[in-house]
Design brief:
The structure is a homodimer of 421-residue chains. Helices cover 40% and strands 17% of the residues of chain A. In chain A, strand 2 and strand 3 form a beta hairpin. Chain A has 421 residues and is of the alpha/beta class. In chain A, the strands form 3 sheets. A 7-stranded mixed β-sheet of chain A has the order 4-10-9-8-7-5-6, sandwiched between helices. In chain A, strands 11, 12, 13, 15 and 16 form a 5-stranded antiparallel β-sheet that branches. A 4-stranded mixed β-sheet of chain A has the order 1-2-3-14. Chains A and B meet through helix 1, strand 1, helix 2, helix 3 and strand 4 of A and helix 1, strand 1, helix 2, helix 3 and strand 4 of B. Chains A, B: Its cofactor is pyridoxal 5'-phosphate. Chains A, B: This is 4-aminobutyrate aminotransferase-like enzyme.
């Protein structure tokens, strides 16, 4: 392992992060399980990319079969991207009927921002203040984890993300008003500076912000302010999408709003680098007229085959239903743990996307949360932390997660809590 | 076919381009061959992505095997990215020993620009005026095919690319001086405007500019001017790289200069979406300190396996040698065609990257070139056009191209010329 870490630091740079104090040297995956090079087995409660399970045989078969038959770019005509596009867009409101396929959620968001700029003629963008939308130069401007070199550009404005534990506490009506007021102010400032507003971009689950519990309609007033000023709404569904939240295929459906542009990524190909932007036909047309865009790998036959297999497994194995059922079961187990563990301030989530927020002595328990992540890894359960104070255990397993897996998770969490508290 | 084109226009937008007046509806690929849905066979003389041949069985096997075993991100430790990184960097000068893996050449160039900015503290970038470096917002600023919405940003400056057929004609010494003077002026302007110079980025084969014939050392004075001003040199090896040019693995070796940052893309995974930046350890370290960069799919085990298989096939099957041998054979055949076809003004290239430039009545024969592309497609040979005036037939086949394939290409080109002239 030391040798691997040394090679890694030289080849991949000294700041290439690893998860856990003792990184996991992975060798094999299957379903919800990972094995390390020593043969040790881990319950994966965190990786959303293998959405239909690590090494899902139907996805592997689809990739292998198509890779052996044909893989080339979309300047040739091929049916698979069309079949997939029709299947995918059937899961959206009728007017979201067009798509542009790319290789990563970062590329998808990079395109989405330009679509909004082309469509509105404005450049201003509003995002939330504790988020992540990807790694290109343009979308890095929206990331709050590190200020970009040269600072934030003046056309980008951040508004405070909703936060259940903030001074406004659990009063969601006041939270929604505060959020809308912040958006209204940002719109006014972008208009005053001459940028105007092209889009409000947000994850409709606020996944990186610690996914506060929000009622349907929470965003309505903020969205209205953006629309009234001529801006569009971009829903970054990279994390909540494809049925993970159990109640719906998409996070924006759960919150009850209709985005103009939706971006998709990580789980779309179960690990194969494929991502997409789904939008209205008029927006895609406008973008294509304003920019000359082509993506060599985006939507190639193998990428389309991988995405189609993921789509079909979600449908055939009713993984949205599984996320709803096992998610609720898991939440109940975690609330039982909470009932005798004071350090758990909140248990929340939807479907197979859950958080366990830790506070101690009236403050976010950030260090304790980091210890929990490592203690659970040592006990064979993989998860990580999230949120403004990094004090929430983030649970986001492959959507084939079972009740038995949930039992193991809750048991190990309780054991680890007994060690760290 | 009509139905497929209609579905395509609705789903993928009306301006999603296709090659050829009658698009090819592709079904299957193998080696240098593509088949359409009617079973018609085409000799592929254009697609550089399937570098080791369409559906190369070793690459397919590597992808299928690894996809069935494990595919997850690089915050876990895995050996394959390290094995590949060591193999790949062995093909570069000693100080280019570190790499960052991404999903596309666009992502690679987007990162490379930020590496140069982090390393130099400057923002100014110089590119050539008839090029393409990818599709993200940032690198779109370097593309000359279409002015970005909102115009070019002031930190980006374009210099005229070398052009054998320009007024300076074949006098390469004067061309090199003119190119260097343009770069020196661009540096001076970026310094005067306060941006300073972070990098000169170029394709060391000037692939999109029509790949003018350039001698070793051609760029030395221009590169010296950039370095003297504190800037770095980025070689975009997406097109010439991985041995296509026959004489060397990389275009910059052929031109005899040492870049600070190299970007790789299309052929790297034979169609699997994988790309990379290769650079010095100090530059990667500086970038990682300035930015918080992570790429979910970049360098995952399947991407590393695909890239490793491509690397091994190039080595084991001596495809660099094949590119040199068959490339020279093809050039000679094309020059024989030229000897009795006045419309061919120039035949040039290196390895399996060749151009046939068409002029008529003292002017670039742009329309005739477009007719040639379609006539050859009708005769079962796929290629395309390139260059400032789109009057050069671009030949860039999979590197398993054989002498027999070259015979067919030359025959069909001669037939098509007899039709269009």
């Amino acid at each position: 392992m030391r040798t691997a870490l040394e090679r890694r630091a030289r080849l991949l740079g000294p700041h290439m992060t690893t998860f856990y104090d003792t990184p996991v040297h992975v060798a094999r995956g299957e379903g919800v399980w990972l094995w390390d090079t020593d043969g040790r087995k881990y319950l994966d409660c965190y990786n959303n990319v293998p959405h239909v399970g690590h090494c899902n045989p139907r996805v592997v078969e689809a990739i292998a079969t198509q890779a052996a038959q044909l893989n080339t770019h979309t300047r040739y005509v091929h049916d698979l991207i069309l079949d997939y596009g029709e299947a995918l867009t059937s899961k959206f409101d009728h007017d979201l009927e067009s798509l542009l396929m790319v290789c990563s959620g970062s590329e998808a968001n990079d395109v989405a921002l330009r679509m909004a700029q082309a469509m509105t003629g404005n450049t201003g963008i509003i995002g939330t203040d504790d988020t992540y939308h990807g790694n290109t130069s343009a979308v890095s401007q929206l990331n709050s984890s590190k200020t970009p070199v040269g600072g934030y550009l003046p056309h980008v404005r951040q508004v405070p993300a909703p936060d259940n534990m903030a001074p406004l506490g659990g009063d969601r009506t006041k939270q929604a008003e505060a959020f809308a007021q912040d958006v209204e102010q940002a719109v006014a400032k972008l208009q005053a500076s001459g940028h105007g507003i092209s889009a409000l971009i947000l994850c409709p689950y606020f996944a990186n912000e610690g996914f506060p519990t929000l009622e349907r309609g929470f965003l309505d007033r903020a969205i209205g302010a953006v629309r009234n000023a001529g801006g569009l709404i971009i829903a970054d569904e990279v994390q909540p999408g494809f049925g993970r939240i159990g109640s719906h295929w998409w996070g924006h459906e759960r919150l009850g709003f209709a985005p103009d542009i939706v971006t998709l990524g990580k789980p779309m190909g179960n690990g194969h680098p494929v991502a997409a932007v789904v939008t209205r036909h008029d927006i895609l047309t406008c973008f294509q007229e304003a920019f000359r865009y082509f993506n060599t790998f985006g939507g190639n036959p193998v990428s389309a085959a991988a995405a189609m297999a993921v789509f079909q497994v979600i449908e055939d194995d009713n993984l949205v239903g599984n996320a709803a059922d096992v998610g609720e079961y898991t939440l109940n187990l975690l609330r039982q743990v909470q009932s005798h563990r004071d350090v758990i301030a909140d248990v929340r989530g939807a479907g197979l996307f859950m958080g366990v927020e830790l506070w101690r002595d009236g403050a976010p328990a950030t260090a304790l949360c980091a210890r929990m992540v490592n203690e659970m890894r040592e006990r064979g359960v993989l998860l990580h932390s999230v949120g403004r104070h990094d004090n929430t255990l983030k649970l986001r397993p492959p959507c084939v997660f079972s009740r038995e897996n949930a039992d193991q998770l809750a048991d190990v969490m309780d054991q680890a809590l007994s060690v760290v508290t």
